[in-house]
Amino acid sequence: MDDREIVGPITRQRRVTLSNTRRGSLKNLNELNGRLNEKSDRAGKTKRKAQESQAENANEKNKRNGRGDKMSCHTLQESLLSSSSEFSNYRGILNWCVVMLVLSNARLFLENLLRYGILVDPIQIISLFLKDPYSWPAACLVIVCNVFIVVALYVERQLAKGSISEQFGMFIHFLNLSIILCFPMATVLCLPSITPVGASFALGVYTIVLLKLYSYKDVNKWCRERRQVRARSLSRSLSCPSSPTISSSSQTHVSYPGNLSLRDLYYFVFAPTLCYELNFPRSPRIRMGFLLRRLFEMLLLTQLLVGLIQQWMVPVIQSSMKPLQEMDYSRMVERLLRLAVPNHLIWLIFFYCFFHSSMNFMAEVLQFGDREFYRDWWNSETITYFWQNWNIPVHKWCLRHFYKPMLRRGGSKWASQSAVFFLSAFFHEYLVSVPLRMFRLWAFMGMMAQLPLAFFVGRYLRGNYGNAAVWMSLIIGQPIAVLMYVHDYYVLHYQELPQTTGL
């Protein structure tokens, strides 16, 4: 038999066997798929039945709850005055406080009118500034301060040219600043024709000129140091940066020593800032509407301040003299509390009139762009935050020309802060004691007492309690100092006169 005859049938037999095997495997797979499909169908039916059952149960529960909601009136919630309630709309309570404040002050004002009558006298205001209508010593004293301004400019020009040495120039500057500090004080103490109010105004002007010229000296010195290392202009890090969005496109950039001109210096003297720089941020134009509103506020609030002082504060202070002399503590506390309200109201009006109306008025006239004269001091939770934010021009000067230089010389942070408070206490006493021609150190001690008070409030009081402590120090602290100075002044000058003992 041939090999081909044997191979052929065997191959066909193998093909038949493989095909049968494949059919069996496919059959088994189909059966397995069928079983899996049946199981999945049964699982799906079971799942659908469970869902339907849950839906029915939920419907029944909702029906029962719907029947129960008709009698339910309580939910889980906190009281609105609780801190955990997250309720913040207290506008009605604020309006109530304003209404109560107006009504209570209206009652006090009416009571004052019924007891003392109308005490507002415009002629008396003139007498507070002038004793002789033909002699204006305070105004003449203010005019003389221009001499010291011109001297500072002359010294800076000589330093820029190299005509005098740096050491000799600094000596002349400090001599000039010392005379600015001592000359008005000596004039006020030696010239009886200057009234306390006129002297206080003149000393305030000289103090501002002193701080401005000190900043002028420092910045120009920095410019010379920069010029020695090939710098053409004052570094931005040494001055407040000017914003390009509000600067006038026509404004030219000034470089040292091109800033040493009379016009540049007098712009700085009248600008509402104590920190000098070569290129101040400038507003693009003068807004007449804004300017007129600030002028109206200045005139109105000045008249209101004068009226409140004459009509409200003066009678309370006069009636406080007898309890102070007799050391009647209960009546002293009562007079202090009576004086606290008008004193604090007058202080708030003065703050708005000076730091908002007057300084914005000058800034608008000069197109001075930096209008940050104060921050949100009313939200102060510490004493330190209040003193850093209620008077921004003074704070910037102290930080730039006093606090940071002390740190660079190796002073500690606490010692530098204490030195700033000491400097502030000195000027407070200077501006009060010299015009009154008596030295009692009440203002100085009041400012230095802010150091332990700041430590106590910052360490033990937080949040609303700290803010309440700041307000209490403002409302109670100032009337105490006012009563002390007025009592001492009254004893020195008017004790022999009949006392006003209004109750």
Description:
By secondary structure, the chain is an all-alpha fold. The chain has 3 domains: 131-281; 283-372; 374-503, no CATH class. The chain contains 16 helices and no strands. Residues 1-18, 231-250 and 497-503 have low confidence and may be disordered. Belongs to the membrane-bound acyltransferase family. Sterol o-acyltransferase subfamily. Residues 1-70 are annotated as: Disordered. Its main location: endoplasmic reticulum.
Note the topology.
Blueprint: H1 3-69, H2 91-116, H3 122-129, H4 137-161, H5 166-190, H6 196-228, H7 262-270, H8 288-319, H9 321-326, H10 329-366, H11 383-389, H12 392-408, H13 413-436, H14 442-448, H15 450-460, H16 463-493
Helix pairs in contact: 4-5, 4-6, 5-6, 6-13, 8-10, 10-16, 12-13, 13-14
Biased composition (Basic and acidic residues): 58-70
Region (Disordered): 1-70
GO cellular component, one term: endoplasmic reticulum membrane
